[in-house]
Amino acid sequence: MQEQVKEILAQEKSKPPNILKALLLLQEQLGHVPVEAVPVIAHTLDVTTAQVAGVLSYYPDLRVSAPGRHLIRVCIGESCFANGCGRLLRTLQDSLRIDVGETAAGGRFTLETMSCAGNCALSPSMIVDRDLHGRLLPSQLDALLDHYR
Amino acid sequence: MSMALRLYLSNDTSARAAGAGLLADAWSERPEVQLIRTSSRGAFFLEPVVERDSPDGRLAWFRVIPEDLPSILSGRGGTPVRSIPFLMQQTRFTFANFGETEPLVLDEYQARGGLQGLETALRITPDAIIEEVRVSQLRGRGGAAFPVWNKWKVAQQAKADEKYVVANADEGDAGTYCDRMILEGDPFRLLEGMLICARAIGADRGYVYCRQEYPAAAATLRAAIHKADEAELLDVDGEFFPIEVVEGAGSYVCGEETALLESIEGRPGVVRAKPPYPAQSGLFGRPTVVSNVLTFATIPNILSWGGAWHAALGTEQSRGTMALQLGGRVKQPGLVEVPFGLTLRQVLDQFGGGMAPGSRFKAVQVGGPLGSLFPASQLDMTICYDAFAQAGAVLGHGGIVVYDHQTEMVDLARHFMAFTAQESCGKCTPCRIGSVRGVEILERIQAGSGTADDLLLLEDLGATMKAASLCALGGRAPYPVLTAIEHFPAEFRNRLRQ
Amino acid sequence: MKLSINNRLVVAEPGETIYEAAKKSGFAIPGLCASDHLNPFGSCRLCLCEIEGQNGTPASCTTLAREGMVVHTESERLNRLRRNLVELYLSEQPHVDRAPEVLQRLAKSLGLRQVRYPQPSHRLDVVDRSNPFFTFDNAACISCARCVRACDEIQGTHALTMLNRGFAARPVAGAAALSGDAAGFVSSNCVSCGACVKECPTGALMEKTIQEQGLPEQTVRTTCAYCGVGCTFEAGVRDGKVVRMVPADDGPSNQGHACMKGRFGWTYNDAPDRLHVPLLKQGNEWVEISWSAALDRIAQEWWRIKQTHGPDALATISSSRGTNEENYLFGKFMRCVIGNNHIDNCARVCHSATVTGMMETLGASAATNSIQDLDLAKLIMIVGANPTESHPVVGARIKQAMRRGVPLIVIDPRRTELAHLAGIHLQLHAGTNVALLNGLGHVVAKEGLIDETFVHARTEGFDDWLNTVAECTPEQTSRVTGVPAHLITEAARRYAKSGGSMCLHGLGVTEHRWGSHGVMALVNLALATGNIGKPGTGINPLRGQNNVQGASDVGCLPTYFAGYQSFDNPDLAAAHLAVTGRPLPAARGMKTPDMWDAALAGQLKTLWIIGYDVAQTDPNLKKVHAALKNLEFLIVQDLFLSETAKLAHLVIPGASFLEKDGTFTNLERRIQRIRKAVEPPNGVLPDWQVVCEVSARMGYPMWYGHPSAIMDEIAQLAPMFAGVSFDRLEAPEGLQWPVPSKEHPGTSLMHERSFPKGRARFVPVDALPPGELPTEAYPLVLITGRILQHYNCGAQTRRTGIMQVVDTDVLEMHAVDAARLDLHDGETVRLVSARGEARLPVIVSERVQPGELFTSFHFPDTDLNQLLSSSADESSKCPEYKVSTVRIEKVLPSGTPSTPMHVMLIT
Ligand SMILES: Nc1nc2c(c(=O)[nH]1)N[C@H]1C(S)=C(S)[C@@H](COP(=O)(O)OP(=O)(O)OC[C@H]3O[C@@H](n4cnc5c(=O)[nH]c(N)nc54)[C@H](O)[C@@H]3O)O[C@H]1N2
Ligand SMILES: Nc1nc2c(c(=O)[nH]1)N[C@H]1C(S)=C(S)[C@@H](COP(=O)(O)OP(=O)(O)OC[C@H]3O[C@@H](n4cnc5c(=O)[nH]c(N)nc54)[C@H](O)[C@@H]3O)O[C@H]1N2
Ligand SMILES: Cc1cc2nc3c(=O)[nH]c(=O)nc-3n(C[C@H](O)[C@H](O)[C@H](O)COP(=O)(O)O)c2cc1C
Ligand code: SF4
Ligand code: SF4
Ligand code: SF4
Ligand code: SF4
Ligand code: SF4
Ligand code: FES
Ligand code: FES
Ligand SMILES: [Mo]
Q1: A137 domain residue, yes or no
Q2: pLDDT per residue as tens digits for the range B14-51
Q3: Domains and their CATH numbers in chain B
């Protein structure tokens, strides 16, 4: 892993080192930022482990463990709230049998919430991986998830 | 060569979510169709919209499904775009290109008046640019509504080895999406605005901090920067002016300008105390103009048509147009560009078209998650920075979300506080601890174990957060909660322990 | 700038915040997150104020004072806000009854009686005890980030961060917390400087000694007795024992900062094996004897030897760890009682080459500028010194300067922490300073970067120097030193053009075969570019021990009397006679290495060694041991039974710096007080009283009521101290010599208008090879020096909690060499030179280049200095500690598990 991390980080050459960019890059390639890699990351970037930990623990998008194969993010922003994102979320929790922040058995789906997908005119919205879905009705969810199964 | 028919279909993310992508896939192999992927007009309630040219200008078909193609080809059932009331009644300056152009075709941008502002800016002195902006009375569109020229002047006068221009494309307020539309739909307008600013203050580098939730926006912008570079536009006083797109990582408070700078530097997005203001000491400690995307996008017209043109629009204290973004339970959600000065009621009626079917109006929230709630009785509020300020509210980034009769105000209030607790950077006490205490109180009320004292405590806590917080996240978080209690007291009282 | 605060007129400097202005004028605005030592932050929000004509309640600690401002810091509204904020703090405490005292006090003063939040969620109740010296208790913390900012802004180590965000935000060290481990400090790069502990407003970070022994009842202001920075401390005393040492904010050289050793490494003072009673060796046994018997015995033996063998059979090596007063007295004793100048001190092995090099060129041999000049320098050049380890408070200050954008050039064969951070690191081969410095001179001369005005007005011998450097092209220099030519050119340009370059140098310049030449080459460069006699410039030796500067200043030298006065000065001779009643011996005395030769030759019969562990720290140990063993009577005066003491006939216990009064002179010539904080262990006499007692027994009573009287005598005899007295030293800033008169304010900047000899002299020097070069038999170059955590012979630091951080010397080796020799971290090897051998564990390190090795000398078990030769600088006899050729032999079969060790390399 050490070598792989170093290789990936070789692409991130900001001066002074940019920890956030480096971690995003790692996450893009590894799916998450393994905690065990923090010392190598710090050393490669020439910063301290504390500095890496500070950034890694601050940003909601950075994850220290691998998510499921598909990441579902339900928007709970105000427009979606007004348009019933609560029901959407409950339906998903029931059908996947998981809570927000958890990964479904089999590791297929991880369920998360997000704040505004910028799709408010088509609320309620949800993002699966990189696909944005709008004007969602709870009744459509099963078919939609089937698409990713 | 067969004469394929040019059909215009938006490539905007929301339009695609509404089905534009589906149409494109379905029709991509059809020889009789030539699909032009444009920006979106913002009438999202009609998306996906398909348009074609006609002697009357564009004709549009709404909420199109693939099977509608034959009628479109035949020209049946189209509505002339210029007769769509939602669009007709708007005053489009910043969004004039929307629905018309292909976002990444620089020639089209130029053909419709693009780059004229920059040309003017290159002709005149930096002082003259700033003077033009001063005359325009443009105020920042990101939320704080600070006079734009003033920031530029400070940054221009600051002495430093480097200076920066940063576009705030974090657009974190729920219910807003006009920045995304610009990034995806008219990126050269943003770049032009940034270049004008760069020339005015003598900047060396530009950054666009784009939220991670907008992948298409970042990609489009990067492509636009590449094209602008090829066209040798990225030049300030003979020096290459690189513009970098930096993506965020899901933190709302990173939209706050100083947290944003921390984040660009790669550190935790923790808010800095001001002063020093970014214009004095910003990114890497250098003078930096941070402005909202919409603010920068407003600049080119001001330079091409003059500050006085801009100042002639709007109200006494709020000049120009505002991009309002309708969402929630309105019938016609979408983008509305109008001069300041309409009332909330006018906007909701004329553009929103009333409530969504089956919904009854309960409240409207303006200005994102930190904005106040207005009940029906306050709909005559003028849309203007100062009228809002006087009412203790904010116009923010122009998000307008309508809640209907089904919304439980206690739940909504908890939702707001939980948002703040979730997004607090954790630097200052009132927000770090206070927001959690606020959630706890509201959860007690939700659970039926709250008391009247809890409501008083919430008010006192709210007052403390308002007065003592370091940034507007903690400082404004109590507003939606307290206005909910103020306007819907019964809903809270009914849930208290008897 | 004038403003009104609470209806009182207050004067503020531009850039000052309301909070600072108020504090200066005696208003205490409540506040927990602001600190004089840190940038404005504004997190606690307690310091809110009201400003007339302005909405809201801005934080006074982040709001700049403006002319004419009308500010109120007390009002019912503000009081209520503050009460509510303190209530929030209390609400997150897991144990409200045990809430930090500051919070309880604030609550009381604000009238907060009860926390109104029922069952609030609270802070994680975790404690990090992994630092040997202090603990972090998250429950008592208010997440104000002062600790984090202290580590960043003051110490520049970045060992801390705020973890998480929002309610969960809390400080942690390192990254252990990410995996749920509370032991953050031990796995971080924390260097235990203690800055975070000092900044913590709540006691969440707290010294273990305080937790174990309670808060001090009184404090005594004193000066650290480790290195030459001379940090000012408040010694906290309880029940007659020191319980903590806190750096003083008004300490002139440290401004509230400290390092691990001074802050936490003082507990040796109560070590169980401190010497309490004089010990006499009988056969192979130590016998405790009474003080009077011991003192009688010294007097008898010395009287006998002097009578039998003449004065040249007696010599003293005095302690650069002792006070000025003690050192002066030992010198006086030798000169007046024994009648010779056979006295030396540890400066011999340290910066003696600086003394000769600077004397010949500038005519004075001490730092030309002051530590505070680091804030004025436009460029800092560090030559052969490792300040972040050897002079950590200066090191931190350099890192602060770098944060402000001041460029740094480091000349060192090793990649030290600063070399790593520096814009330019000239990584030369050990022993090639003169070549490199001449090379820089060549570029300066060739590119017309000479400060002509300065050279013509203030110097002589310039043309000779020009001729010497004319041949030293960058290419030629590169061949000798291994430094790329373009870096040489670039460094020379930057040094010459910065508008004020400050040079700091260390043992990497002096401890060489041609150490004095290295110093002269450095001075030449500064003279040629006019970087001397101005603020923020100069030649500044980072003198080593706490009082190595002072020991030499007051005449513990075989070549000079106090104040660097020559023995042949007739005025001095007269004054000496008048004041002491005895003539001043005119002949130069023996330097330390001469003493070894004399002892081996049987001419030197007795030595009195005070606070100096020559048997461990001098080079070519076999020879030193043989010399010591050849003595008839060896007296060693020390706090502990050091390696040298083990060879003694009589061992005299010493009183530590915490147990006596006197003065030390730091590396910027600053004379500072040390004060008795606690009593020495049962009747132990401070060194100065011992020498008085012996002197009296030898017929020359020296009675002083207090060390201040000794200083008065020094002032009488040495013109550069004429204005020094203990009264004046009560001022927090002490006095920087020269202080030629009672009215003179002291000298922070030397050579401003003229040099002692009028003009400064260029002394051109040619590059010459070191004492030995790698051969087939000894292919590797061994560099020796120090590490942050331990101190010299280690007698003191090895008896403290520092052992939990580092418990061995290690041999640092480049990965290429390690691979070639098939060696792995922790594997013990035999290091062999032409003189002897040493055993050390190996560690692969990025700090050394291939072909070079590094180790420290703080642990006696290794017998490291057996490896070193007696090769020394020609003129000063400063040993060549920095270059020895060695080979490595594997002693363990591959795969043998390494012995566990605590090691921490500063990178
Ligand atoms: N922690 C700690 N602090 C101390 C001490 C201690 O033992 N421990 N001892 C104190 C004493 S007595 C002294 S004298 C000072 C000494 O303080 P420093 O002068 O910093 O001492 P060293 O670490 O011995 O050597 C400094 C540097 O010289 C470099 N060097 C070696 N050879 C050459 C060369 O040929 N050219 C150049 N340019 N550099 C070279 C080494 O790599 C090393 O980094 O520290 C004092 N402070
Ligand atoms: N290999 C190698 N060897 C070196 C060096 C190197 O770089 N490499 N550096 C050399 C240098 S620069 C130096 S300065 C020397 C330092 O070497 P030393 O002077 O031998 O070491 P220190 O630890 O400074 O102090 C010696 C003794 O003083 C005692 N002491 C402290 N305070 C007092 C006091 O108040 N009274 C009395 N009586 N005793 C006291 C301590 O207990 C200790 O035993 O080492 C030298 N040796
Ligand atoms: C919590 C918080 C979030 C913010 N988010 C945004 C944002 O997403 N986009 C934005 O342009 N400004 C945002 N701002 C406002 C910025 O701090 C800043 O005022 C603005 O970017 C300046 O640009 P303008 O002058 O063009 O408005 C936010 C402010 C706060 C306090
Ligand atoms: S505050 Fe009122 S009067 Fe002033 S511009 Fe706004 S609407 Fe007009
Ligand atoms: S108000 Fe909240 S987000 Fe803003 S600085 Fe304070 S803790 Fe951070
Ligand atoms: S002791 Fe010093 S180095 Fe360690 S964490 Fe505290 S400030 Fe940083
Ligand atoms: S440990 Fe002390 S200094 Fe650090 S955040 Fe907590 S209270 Fe503040
Ligand atoms: S820097 Fe030197 S004087 Fe200061 S505390 Fe450390 S060892 Fe003592
Ligand atoms: S609120 Fe959900 S997309 Fe904007
Ligand atoms: S002291 Fe000013 S905010 Fe803490
Ligand atoms: Mo030394």
Answers
A1: yes
A2: 999 999 999 999 998 899 999 999 999 999 999 999 99
A3: 5-83 (3.40.30.10), 106-311 (3.40.50.11540), 321-404 (3.10.20.600), 409-493 (1.20.1440.230)
Same domain? For A81 and A108 the reply is yes
Distance from CA of A99 to the nearest CA of B (A): 17
Tally the C-alpha atoms within 13 A of residue C868's C-alpha that lie toward its C-beta. 32
- Look up the CATH number of the domain holding residue A125: 3.40.30.10
Q: If you measure CA to CA, which chain A residue comes closest to C189?
A: A48
Which residue type does B127 have?
Answer: D
Interface test mutation site (partner A, options C130, C147, C161, C425, max chain A beta carbons within 10 A): C161
The answer on A78 and A16 residing in a single domain is: no
Residues A20, A74, single domain; the answer is no
What is the rounded radius of gyration, in angstroms, for the C-alpha atoms of chain A?
18
Please give, one letter per residue, the 3-state secondary structure of C826-859.
CCEEEEECCCCEEEEEEEECCCCCCCEEEEECCC
Interval C296-330: pLDDT, tens: 999 999 999 999 999 999 999 999 999 999 999 99
Per the DSSP assignment, residues forming a β-bridge with C828 are C841
pLDDT at A149: 78
Indicate if A90 and A116 belong to the same structural domain: yes
Count of domains for chain A? 2
Name the token pair of C553. Answer: 């200043």
Same domain, A82 and A44: no
Are both A42 and A6 inside the same structural domain?
A: yes
Helices of type H across C613-725? 614-617, 621-629, 643-646, 687-697, 707-717
Tokens at C114, concatenated: 């009860």
Give Cβ neighbours of residue B370 (< 8 Å, ≥ 6 apart): B173, B394, B396, B472, B473, B476, B477, B479, B480
**Which residue in C164, C165, C172 is closest to A50 by CB distance?**
C172
String of DSSP letters for C389-416: HHSHHHHHHHHHHHHTT--EEEE-SS--
Q: Write out the residue range of the structural domain in which residue A106 sits.
A: 70-146
- Closest to C254 in 3D by CA, of C395, C381, C379, C399: C395
Same domain, A117 and A137: yes
**pLDDT tens, C779-816?**
999 999 999 999 999 999 999 999 999 999 999 999 99
pLDDT at site C400? 97
Residues A103 and A139 in one domain: yes
DSSP, collapsed to helix, strand or coil, labels residue C11 as strand
Q: Does the residue A65 lie in any domain?
A: no
- The whole-angstrom separation of Cα C2 and Cα C46 is 24
pTM for the whole structure = 0.96
Which ligand is nearest to the Cα of residue C515, counting in written order? Answer: 1
Residues C136, B227: Cα–Cα separation, whole Å: 54
CB-CB under 8 Å, C120 with B436: yes
Q: Give the pair of three-digit tokens for residue B172.
A: 């974190």
On whether residue A108 sits in a domain, the answer given is yes
| Mutation for testing the C interface, residue in A57, A58, A63, A65 having most C CBs under 10 Å | A57
The single-letter DSSP state of residue B368 is G
The answer to whether residue A115 is domain-embedded is yes
Q: Which ligand is nearest to the CA of B422?
A: 5
CA C445 to chain centre: 35
Residues B100, B102, B104, B105: is their CA dihedral positive or negative? negative
Phi, psi of B254 (to 5 degrees): -65, -5
Give me the half-sphere count of Cα atoms (radius 13 Å) on the Cβ side of residue B136.
Answer: 28
Average pLDDT over residues A5-26: 93
Q: What is the mean pLDDT of residues C875-891?
A: 95
Question: Which of A58, A78, A99 lies at the terminal end of a domain, its last residue?
Answer: A58
| Residue C896 predicted with pLDDT over 90 | no
Residue C689 has pLDDT above 80, yes or no: yes
Q: Which of A10, A37, A58 is the last residue of a domain?
A: A58
